[in-house]
Design brief:
14 strands, globular, 11% strand, 4-stranded antiparallel β-sheet, 487 residues, alpha+beta, 47% helix, single chain
């Protein structure tokens, strides 16, 4: 069995190499933020534990009864987990017995997995095999899902289709108005996702037309853009990773998709660690717990150490209190918040940052401004005569007292700018929610959750940076006093 163990990644900080005398702090200022980050995380963890989560079992509902019966016919016999609705996450799986560390949480037989092999064995398989150039594994799965949903009662996979969401809260479903409410760093990616799905639909029309013999009505009314968007989101948000051998009937794109009925009801929690893999011995997709789970609690898995922007983009939800969550600072925001009046000088500095890969992945987190962000600000702060010291700055050294103050002030301006932007978005969301339908309210709720999570991170960063300003003040006063005594 090839096991996948999801672990939290760690980040190392550069060693400070102070070369500017005793008046400049010898301890890197960003190191003092660690305790604030730990306290913030512990506070959020306490709040999560203190929140009462209510659950209502869904196992008696007809669609889940039908799904369990259908899966049992294919060899699935687990009675450990039952579907339930939880007040904090919505649908999920609840444990009926305690789960210990290393216990098997769920084991789904291969016959229950929906893969490209399933599609090729189906009524649609011969059409895929004849089509040139070969379709992608993703398109093959999408076409099958759309067909099965269309056939309704006659569909072999109807019990699974019936429990899939009718719509998703992924950006592919967002209108321009909703996308405009996303943080700038995410809105561009959201537009790209929506355009990618639109392009997939338009480029696949000829292939869809080849399937006409399977349908009594025009394929144009079956394989609509809305239908493809639903299928694409189903595959993108619900598949588990599973390697498949290449087949000449599929394109060379990686074939790593497997839709896993019932198993895909397991929700994400960033604090959970699991082992997940397809066992070639048992011929089942298996998930084992690392920490265990109490009886009558929701069983979780972890999709990986993703921040909330990534979770919203790929899966359509946000994880409150996510320890991996960050607020991104893009080049546009950076330019607007640094006080460099000389346009040519600013352009040269930004070009320098880009060449040295210091314009990407600039973030603020629960630990405070990232090392990359503070290093970028320190490089932007350099005066012309200080340019020769840029290598020392990248290695973690400070430059001078006034340049460090400039960098902290710039970071505070970034926080203020982003907080104002969040407030604007939250006010707009409140206005739109009043007149929104159910679908739009769900989208707005996800965006609002993201904005509020980021607002909390920004508030913590503002507090930290204000503390750093106070730390710098005695050094500034000491320097001014020494200068006065000298004169």
């Amino acid at each position: 069995m090839n096991e996948i163990i999801i672990n939290i990644r760690t980040r190392s900080l550069p060693v400070n190499t102070n070369v500017y005398g005793s008046d400049f702090p010898s301890k890197p200022i960003n190191m003092t933020r660690k305790q604030h980050g730990r306290r913030a995380r512990k506070k959020r963890q306490r709040e999560c534990r203190e929140t009462t989560v209510q659950s209502v079992t869904l196992s008696h509902e007809p669609q889940f009864v039908a799904l369990r019966r259908w899966l049992q016919q294919r060899g699935f016999s687990s009675k450990l987990l039952v579907p339930a609705h939880f007040s904090d996450t919505g649908r999920g799986l609840m444990t009926l017995q305690p789960i210990k560390a290393e216990d098997l949480v769920i084991s789904l037989p291969e016959k229950c997995l929906l893969t490209t092999s399933t599609v090729l064995r189906s009524y649609i398989g011969e059409y895929i095999e004849r089509w040139k150039p070969p379709v992608s594994p993703l398109l093959a799965l999408c076409a099958f899902l759309i067909s099965e949903r269309h056939f309704g009662q006659r569909a072999e996979w109807k019990p699974y289709i019936d429990v899939l969401p009718q719509k998703y809260t992924c950006p592919a479903y967002f209108s321009d108005e909703v996308i405009d409410l996303l943080p700038g760093s995410l809105s561009g990616k959201a537009l790209e996702q929506r355009a990618m799905v639109q392009e997939l639909h338009s480029s696949s029309l000829d292939f869809f037309s080849s399937l006409q013999p399977l349908f009594s009505q025009p394929v144009e009314s079956v394989f609509t853009y809305d239908a493809l968007r639903w299928a694409w989101c189903s595959v993108n948000t619900r598949t588990v990773y599973m390697e498949h051998q290449h087949t000449p009937y599929m394109s060379r794109e990686r074939n790593v998709y497997a839709l896993a009925p019932y198993l895909d009801l397991l929700n994400h929690c960033p604090a959970i660690q699991v082992k997940a893999s397809f066992s070639h011995v048992s011929r089942c997709y298996e998930i084992r717990s690392i920490q265990g789970c109490k009886r009558f609690q929701q069983a979780f898995i972890c999709y990986g150490p993703h921040d909330n922007q990534r979770l919203l983009l790929e899966y359509g939800f946000v994880a409150p209190g996510n320890p991996h969550s960050v607020v991104y600072v893009d080049q546009v925001i950076l330019q607007q918040c640094v006080c460099i009046t000389d346009i040519n000088q600013l352009a040269q500095k930004l070009l320098f940052l880009k060449k040295n890969d210091f314009l990407a992945n600039l973030t603020l987190s629960l630990d405070g401004p990232s090392w990359r962000l503070m290093t970028a600000l320190r490089l932007l702060s350099l005066k012309t005569e200080q340019y020769p010291f840029w290598k020392s700055v990248i290695l973690g050294a400070g430059v001078s007292q006034d340049r460090e103050e400039w960098s902290v002030d710039a970071a505070l301006r970034l926080c203020h700018y982003l907080m104002v932007d969040n407030t604007r978005a939250l006010n707009k969301i409140s206005q739109l929610t009043e007149r929104a339908d159910v679908s739009l309210k769900e989208q707005l709720a996800v965006v609002e959750c993201l904005r509020r999570e980021e607002q909390g991170i920004l508030g913590l960063n503002q507090e930290m940076l204000q503390g750093l300003q106070k730390q710098l003040l005695p050094s500034r006063q000491h320097a001014q006093l020494r200068a006065a005594c000298t004169t």
